[in-house]
Design a protein that fits this description.
By secondary structure, the protein is an alpha+beta fold. The chain has helices spanning about 1-10, 25-35, 65, 70-80, 85-95, 115-120, 150-160, 160-175, 195-205, 230-245, 250-260, 275-285, 290-320, and strands at about 40, 45-50, 95-100, 110, 125-130, 135-140, 145-150, 225, 260-265, 325-335, 350-360, 365-370. The longest helix is centred in the last third of the chain and has 33 residues, at about 290-320.
Length: about 375
């Protein structure tokens, strides 16, 4: 048992990697195109024009479009569109907005022009106080210098809407910083698959009797295999017949692909006799203690196999360094001739054609020897 533990400790077990979907969701793609300022179709199929510099503000105070020439305006817009997220863009805009308390407030009163107008509705004669909570000024930063601009020029240079800047102003007034993009971060998701349905899918997949394979034990020890006659499509149909729940194949496949490490069909060819014998004994044994002994013997055998391949790798490295000569040889294939699909061939004597290969581990050169059974018999590899 101690030797078995030492052998098992020397293995390099790698975690299995799950495939990830490469296709970007429509919502994320639209969100990214809005940040980049490229022309696109929105969620309702309406075409949105590309972000570009707006019209001249015709400002007499700052003469914004005269101070900031066309090349500089285009550079500022390109830099703004190259930002990776809406949060980064909002933080950039907030950094160009200065807030101060208003020097004077002037509440204004809207009076009805006549008594008939006053009688026409309750909202025609009322007081409206336009008391701004703050005054905002805007600037452009380029080449280490700052240029004051008016509100219209600020909107035109960055190609943003009035509503977006007003929202930034309100958040700056209330919290003193730029807001975070909260789109898609709510919990109101009517199309999301309920958790109890996901649990049913996981339970259904787990109900299939999967098993391990000796040939993938070292590279992927957690991988399980189902019979090659099954498929995800077949399992999905069985799930629908059993539970009568409306669920898409994509959702079932997603759970299968992300929550399980399962493949179809065992990758076995020329299986090990000892492994087959121990596996058969373990399946037929009903005594728990005896099953544990068989499992321990099987694990020791597998650890010895892993140790053999480790020795082979070390010998290959020494052979490549010119210290030793290392050869591996095996019967690569046994071919019955003639190779036809007719059922009569199973009742007739066939000529066996042997392929014997010798592989030089240092140079990776292979020498193939072929002969039929009239030339020599296939001796057992010792």
């Amino acid at each position: 048992m101690a030797n078995a533990e030492n052998l098992c400790d020397e293995k390099n077990l790698t975690e299995w990697k799950r495939r990830t979907a490469k296709k970007i969701k429509k919502e994320l793609a639209i969100k990214q195109m809005k940040v980049s300022g490229v022309a696109h179709l929105n969620h309702v199929g309406k075409r949105v024009s590309a972000r570009q510099t707006g019209p001249d503000c015709s400002c007499l105070r700052f003469k914004c479009f005269t101070t900031i020439n066309e090349n500089l305006r285009q550079t500022l817009l390109t830099q703004f569109n190259s930002m990776t997220s809406k949060d980064e863009q909002d933080a950039h805009l907030v950094g160009l907005i200065a807030m101060s308390a208003p020097e004077r407030r002037r509440p204004r009163k809207i009076l009805a022009e006549s008594s008939s107008e006053a009688a026409s509705g309750p909202n025609t004669n009322m007081m409206k106080a336009f008391s701004n909570s703050a005054t905002y000024s805007y600037k452009i930063r380029a080449d280490g210098d700052e240029y004051p601009v008016c509100f219209k020029a600020f909107l035109s240079i960055f190609g943003v809407t009035r509503a977006r800047v007003r929202r930034l102003q309100q958040h700056l007034l209330l919290y003193g910083k730029s807001p975070h993009d909260m789109r898609g971060k709510h919990n109101n998701r009517p199309k999301k698959t309920p958790n109890h349905v996901l649990k049913l899918i996981e339970s259904h997949i787990s109900s299939f009797k999967a098993r391990q394979s000796h040939y993938s034990r070292r590279k992927n020890p957690d991988r399980l295999y189902l019979p090659e006659t099954l498929s995800v499509k077949t399992m999905y149909k069985m799930f629908l017949n059993k539970y009568r729940i409306k669920i898409s194949y994509k959702e079932y496949w997603s759970v299968f692909n992300t929550s399980f490490n399962i493949k179809f069909g065992l990758p076995r060819s020329d299986t090990c006799t000892i492994c087959d014998r121990l596996m058969s004994q373990q399946n037929l044994c009903s005594n728990l203690e005896e099953r544990r002994k068989i499992e321990t013997e099987r694990n020791i055998h597998l650890c010895r196999a892993d140790k053999f391949y480790e020795i082979k790798r070390k010998c290959k490295l020494k052979a490549q360094q010119g210290l030793i000569m290392c050869l591996s040889f095996d019967y690569m294939q046994n071919l019955p001739l003639p190779h036809i699909q007719s059922s009569e061939v199973f009742f007739a004597s066939q000529l066996w054609y042997y392929v014997f290969g010798v592989h030089d581990l240092a140079t990776n050169d292979a020498t193939i020897f072929v002969y039929d059974e009239t030339t020599g018999k296939k001796d057992r590899m010792m």
